[in-house]
Amino acid sequence: MFKGLQSFVERISFSVFSIVLLVLSAFLAFGIMLGSVKDETYDIRMFHLANETIRATKTVEDPIKTEQERQRAAAEVTPVYNYDEEASQNSAAVVRSVFDYALEAKAEAAEDDGEEPPDTALQISDLRKKLEDLEDSGGGFRLSDDLLGMLVRAANAELEKARDTVSSIVSEVMEEPIRDTGLADARNKTEDRIRSSAVAQGLMPAAVEIGRSSIFMNEKVDVQQTEARIEHARAEVEPTRILQGQVIVQEGQIIDREVHRQLELAGLLNESASLRPVLALGLFTLLIFWFIHRHFRQLDQPGYVKKKWLSITLVVYFLTILAMKLLAATEIDFNMALIYVYPTALVPFLLRLLTDGRMAILLTVLTAATGGLLLQEGYSPVANMEIVLYVLFGGFAGHYLIQGDGRRSSILTASFGVALVNALFITFYLLMTQSHFGLQEWLIFIMAAVGSGLLSGALTIGLMPFFETVFGILSDLKLVELSNPNHPLLRRILTETPGTYHHSVMVANLSDAACEAIGANGLLARVGSYYHDIGKTRRPAFFIENQMAGTNPHDSLPPGKSRDIIIAHSTDGAEMLKKHGMPKELVDIARQHHGTTLLKYFLVKARESGEEVDEEAYRYPGPKPQTKEIAVISIADSCEAAVRSMKEPTPEKIEELVRSIIRDKMNDGQFSECDLSFRELKIVGEVICTTLNGVFHNRIEYPK
Asked: What stretches pass through the bilayer (predicted)?
């Protein structure tokens, strides 16, 4: 069943594979993370006791209390008043006008009546008309007939004295600011001063009424400026908020209407649960997997490699999510020291060794964002930024400290470096928070940071065999293990075909140097070269490097038989490696390192014997090299064997031979199925020449 599924995956295109896998993974990740971001709600009834202490999980504004505070601020605003500077003069002028009208009414009545006593009623009527004209102009007031009678019956001297006195008092009182709240006091003050003045007693009631009526507000509210001040005061009021982490109700407290309203406002009641966190998590998940999709879409690798790397990336991401969920579940009251045990460098360690550095950087950033979401204290807005930075710093340290060879010693060394970086970040964090931690708390945090770095290395070493087995990964760590001379297959090559073993070591040195020079995987080329001729162990004596006695069995065989034996070593080697569960990359090297090249020696021998032969029958079955590493190995294999057979190798002869071999392979189309450029072929030739010159240099002849 597993092989059938693997075969199906290999047949479908990477585009279909990636879309299906990313969509399924996005839904799975969304489901796993949903519990960490979904609002916690309670089934609470009004006027019942609270079973537990409830804190706000987010900051929300309380609109009712905010409006109450704004109304209070508006009520405390002092109105803006405008003082009427001409009010004093106007009031004094009105007072004088009233008395002057009385004098005029008396004078006119005296002229009309001659020597007869003036008609009082007529005078009152005439005076009222004059006062009505004053009222119409907006500066008068109405007096009763009794008071008007007092005015017309008084002597002119008394009227004039009263006029001057009352107008003077009114002018003095009106010079002071009078508002609506002080109007009564100002009128009482005016009355008191008039009563204590020298106004005739017969005119006193009229003088008092005229004086009181002449007093009015000379400071009025500026409505526009006052409203502007009120609006400013309202705007200055900060909204009243229920803060994250704020205790809304204590355990055992009665849930009154106000508390119930705050719980509802904070979205802590079952019926008020919000879908916003769910939608937000959906967008977050979409962004995470979109970035992964874009990375692999732009990745310049074969489809089967991208499928494998994408699968590994998603498995690593889910491992980190599960680790975060485990920490969050086992943590008590969000002890911050516990969450700093999270292995910050696990992601870059695994992805640097299993995929590529760019993916390691990208997933480090994405897991840091995820960690801020899942490892928050419950009251952090959006994400816990301390955790985000902690994972980023530790992850970047792991990315730049891990060595590409993947040896356990290198992983452990990088782990200690990550532990140091984590400890430095923790120190920065504790200093920045200005918290008064004691020595014990500091040690706990530092130990958690160091544990994070060491745990990253330990988990990487422990998980590498899992990934290598499940995904058939040929990691640098696996390559280093396969290069051990004590490996059973290498020991077999050494003991059964010592000449082939030494040839393979030389090819490994040449291939490694050439691949490193063109940016290919030198370690893969080296280890692949060790095993590329493993098929020769089935018939060691038929290969010249293993013929110690000087006899060549091919001399007694027909060319066709010799051809079959020589050609079979590539397919035999591939089958042997496959049987021993060796990685696919090494199997491909054994099968493809000769491509479809021609066995010229036996072809010529067959033709010399008079046989009618087809050239294609004397070619290796292939396929041609599919990768740069295999192409370089094929060149190094041919060059090493050819130079070793030279009588007196010189740098000039070696260079000419290497160029000839590369030119022949290129003309034969052996590089047509790999992306090896002309420039890279030139570099490969130069490196191989340099290396061979170092091996086959001239030596001095020592005396006997």
From this structure: 12-37, 278-296, 308-327, 334-351, 357-375, 387-403, 409-431, 443-467
More confident position, 380 or 613: 613
Nearest of 378, 439, 301, 405 to residue 18 by alpha carbon: 301
201 three-class SS: coil
Q: Tell me how crowded residue 254 is: count the other CB atoms within 10 A of its CB.
A: 11
Q: Which parts of 375-407 fold into alpha helices (H)?
A: 385-401
pLDDT band at 333 (very low <50, low <70, confident <90, very high): very low
Q: Where are the beta strands (DSSP E) in 117-260?
A: 219-221, 241-242, 247-249
Mean pLDDT of 482-491: 91
CB count, 10 Å around CB of 611?
12
Rounded to two decimals, the pTM is: 0.59
Phi-psi map region of 551: left, alpha, beta (phi>0 left; psi -120 to 50 alpha): beta
In angstroms, what CA-CA distances link 122 with 11, 104, 127, 159? Answer: 125, 13, 8, 18
Burial of 60 (0-12, 13-18, 19+ CB in 10 A): middle
Rounded Cα distance, 524 and 517, in Å:
14
Asked if 33 and 318 touch (Cβ cutoff 8 Å), the reply is no
Instruction: Find out whether 577 and 487 touch, Cβ atoms under 8 Å.
Output: no
- Give the pLDDT band (50/70/90) at residue 453: very high
CA dihedral 91, 93, 99, 105 (to 10 degrees): -130
Helix (H) or strand (E) run with residue 54 in it:
strand 54-55
Using the structure block, give the residue that is written with the tokens 């007529």: 122
250, 256, 252: which is closest to 49 by C-alpha? Answer: 252
Q: How far apart are CA 305 and CA 471, in angstroms?
A: 10
Please provide residue 598's backbone torsions phi and psi, each rounded to the nearest 5 degrees: -100, 135
Decide if pLDDT at 54 tops 80: no
Radius of gyration of the chain (CA): 52
CA distance 90 to 539: 134
Please check whether residue 221 is in contact with residue 79, taking contact to mean a CB–CB distance below 8 angstroms: yes
Cα 615 from Cα 603, distance rounded (Å): 7
CA distance 145 to 136: 19
Instruction: Pick the most confident of 50-54, 215-219, 451-455, 603-607.
Output: 451-455
Neighbours of 654 (CB within 10 A): 22
How confident is the model over 76-97, as a mean pLDDT? 83
Q: What is the pLDDT of residues 277-296, one digit of tens each?
A: 788 889 999 999 999 999 99
Length of the chain: 704
Residue 524, pLDDT above cutoff 60: yes
d(CA 476, CA 521): 10
Range 439-460 average pLDDT: 89
Minimal CA–CA distance to 382: which of 281, 245, 274, 266?
A: 281
